[in-house]
Each structure stands twice: as C-alpha cells, then as structure tokens.
Write a structure and sequence with these properties.
Blueprint (H helix, E strand, L loop, with lengths): L1 E5 L3 H11 L4 E6 L12 E5 L6 H7 L5 E4 L6 H8 L8 H7 L2 H10 L7 E4 L5 H8 L3 E5 L9 E4 L14 E5 L5 E9 L5 E3 L3 E6 L2 E7 L8 H16 L3 E10 L2 E8 L9 H4 L4 H9 L13 E7 L13 E4 L9 E8 L3 H16 L3
Parallel strand pairs: 1-2, 1-4, 2-3
Antiparallel strand pairs: 5-8, 6-7, 6-8, 9-10, 9-11, 9-13, 11-12, 12-15, 13-14, 15-17, 16-17
Bound molecules: adenosine monophosphate (AMP).
The site of adenosine monophosphate has 15 residues, from strand 6 and strand 14.
Length: about 375
C-alpha cells in the first residue's frame, strides 16, 4: 500500500523500514526547515508549505491509501482536510485530545482513571497555595508543545514560581512519589481487537527517557491486566486505530496515567528485537486492515537511548543492536538507540547499567 506519514523523524523512519519489508511504499510530510535526514531514501518528502491545500498536499504525497501521523502536534484543520481524501489513523479526535494536556487529563479522568492531581493555571494563580493543595514538588507544564521535559518546571517549594507567558495555557500537577515509571504500548485493529505488549519499566534523566526494561520485572499481580483494561477502555472510547501508548506512574500498586501518546513510542523500541511482532509492524498492520501480530516478549529485553552520543565500542556491549537515525549529533539530541536481549532480567539490567554508565556516567 501507499502510506503517507505526517512527519519525517526517527519514528517515521522506523515505521517505513518495517513497512518496506512488507512491500509498502511511503511518503513523508516535513515542516518547513525540518531536516528529513532520518527518512532519506525511504520515500518522497513533501514540505508543509502554509499555502498547500489538503487536496494539493494529498496529491504531493502521492495520493496515499492511508495516512498516519508521527507526532501529536498537528493542526486539526490539516488532519480533517486530509481525512476527506484518505483515512487518517489515528484520527483527528485522538490527536486533538492528546496534544493538549488539560483536554487529555479531563478525558482520562472521565473514563474513570486516575492521574496526578492537577489544575489549569495562569499567570495570576497563587502557585505557592496550589503546591500546598496538590502536593510538592509542583510540576508546571504547558498544555501544548511540551514533551521530553520541555516547557516544564519542577518547583520544589514555595517562592520559586516561574514567570508564565499569558499567551500560553498551562496546568499544574502535584508531584507523585512513584516507585517506578511504566508504559503500556497497545494496538487496536480495524476489527476492534486490541493487543498489548508487556508493561515496560522506564528510567528518565532530566525528563527524557534514557532506558527501558521489558517485561518490567517483579510487577504486582494483576497489574498487566489492569493496564490492559485501561487501554481497552480508552481505545474503544476513541474508536482508535493503530498504536497508543500509556505512560504510567506506579504508586502503591496503583497505576496513575501520566500521558497518552497516540503513536509508536520510544519505550516500545525494544520490541524490534524482543517481541514476536515489533510495534512499528503492528501499527502498520492496524492501519492497513491486517490482523494484529502477537505481542509476546521473546526474551528479557532493554533499550538504551543514544542522547547526543555515538554508540560505544562493540566490545563494551556484545550483542547490542544499534539503531541509528541518520541525524547529526548535538548535545542531548535523540540520535539512535541500542536494543539488548539476554537470558534473564538481572543480566539484561546489568548490561543496561554498564552501557548507561559508559555513555552518561549515571547508572
Ligand atoms: P511528562 O512530560 O509529563 O511526560 O514528564 C516528564 C517526566 O517528568 C516524567 O516522565 C516524570 O519522570 C516527571 N514527572 C512529570 N510529572 C510528574 C509528576 N506529577 N510527579 C512526579 N514526576 C513527574
């Protein structure tokens, strides 16, 4: 099939690499000035000039049979315009909800699922009083355009309020003393069937994912089923198609939803060598109407992000599978990742710690 991906970064690259193996052809949408190097050689790249109508864009993308977004920050107008010409999965409703933190959290709470305590704030809000109410540390996050720790502040106590921009919407969240951060990568197909990968344990540095371990070791009994139930409910309510990722906090055996990502996810990269069917193939299966592939973990697996660094010497990490995104290396920039598999969770965790220490010195 001819598939257009709205984006041209590493997720687009990995979707296309998985799709080429199945005979699909791709085109990509780049923002003006965006470097399309990750998808170089994988299909036509169209630049989203502001004067392009949906019809012209659709034609420039090669009249795709299906369209899929790589990121959530796309305009509803663009998504709805394209949806008149070809199916867009996941659709404009899912993206409009998940691109705005207040809308997203309202939706999650309405479905009966817990989040950190939160409230919309503006430059007039007394953040010191709110911190006492919601709990310190207080996290201030912009509603839109905030990811990987961007547009966020962590206030550890009163008297530290940042200057908020009156033109931007924000929420404040009470700090959650989580034991672990987990994620669930789930996929829903055209027949409404849902498949979920094992819960993944994620470690962040400065708000950015540094490593993942899957299946997450030693989870409380029934937690996987609880997470899957959440995914079923959220996806059915949205009539969702494709991969949806739930970013979760584990607190006293309960799951709080931190965020939803309407796409393949960094914490699912381990599936490329650790699961029956990788997340990229399953997303493509879902949006092209094929039955979903099995999501079982084949072995204890891990992923370490390459953030502004090149891969270490091979002898440091035998068996490491390096995925390079064809991007220039800049401090902190996601330029690749390494997947690891091992016989048991202890040895795979030890390999992750060794690798993280070698790359960043903070294992
Ligand atoms: P986010 O951009 O919302 O995914 O936040 C990035 C990271 O900041 C999360 O993965 C957590 O490590 C941390 N974080 C965000 N919100 C909270 C919170 N309410 N309580 C504790 N940690 C948080």
């Amino acid at each position: 099939m001819r598939i257009a991906i709205l984006g041209c970064g590493q997720l687009a690259r990995m979707m296309a690499l998985a799709g080429w193996a199945r005979g699909h052809r791709f085109s990509f949408l780049a923002e003006p000035g965006e470097d399309p190097a990750p998808v170089e050689g994988l299909g036509e790249v169209v630049v989203a000039e502001p004067n392009l109508s949906p019809e012209l864009l659709y034609r420039a993308l090669g009249r795709p049979e299906v369209i899929t977004p790589e990121r959530e920050q796309l305009s509803a107008e663009l998504l709805n315009g394209l949806a008149q010409l070809a199916p867009v999965y996941p659709d404009g409703r899912a993206l409009t909800l998940t691109q705005h933190r207040a809308r997203e959290k309202t939706f999650i709470n309405e479905q009966g699922f817990a989040t950190a305590p939160w409230q919309a704030v503006d430059p007039h809000t007394d953040l010191d009083a709110l911190g006492d109410l919601l709990g310190w540390p207080l996290f201030i996050k912009s509603c839109e355009d905030g990811y990987d720790g961007l547009n966020q502040w962590r206030l550890d106590g009163p008297g530290k309020a940042p200057k908020l921009n009156p033109d931007i919407e924000y929420i404040a969240e009470g700090g959650v003393a989580f034991e672990r951060e987990l994620s669930l990568v789930a996929v829903r197909g055209t027949d409404g069937s849902v498949a979920c990968y094992p819960l993944t344990e994620n470690r962040h540095q400065g708000g950015v994912l540094q490593s993942s371990l899957a299946p997450a070791p030693s989870l409380p009994e029934g937690l996987q089923a609880k997470a899957e139930q959440m995914a079923h409910t959220l996806m059915a309510e949205l009539n969702y198609l494709g991969v949806l990722t739930l970013e979760l906090f584990l607190v006293e055996e309960q799951l709080l939803v931190n965020e939803l990502a309407p796409r393949v996810h960094n914490s699912g990269h381990w599936t490329q060598s650790g699961a029956d069917t990788c997340q990229f193939e399953n997303h493509l299966r879902a949006i092209t109407g094929l039955p979903l592939g099995a999501t079982r973990a084949l072995a204890p697996s891990a992923m370490v992000n390459l953030l502004g660094v090149t891969p270490p010497a091979p002898e440091l990490c035998p068996g490491a599978k390096v995925h390079w995104y064809n991007k220039g290396v800049r401090p902190g920039r996601k330029v690749g990742h390494i997947n690891l598999n091992d016989a048991n969770e202890h040895s795979v965790r030890a390999s992750v710690d060794r690798l993280v220490d070698a790359l960043y010195g903070n294992a």
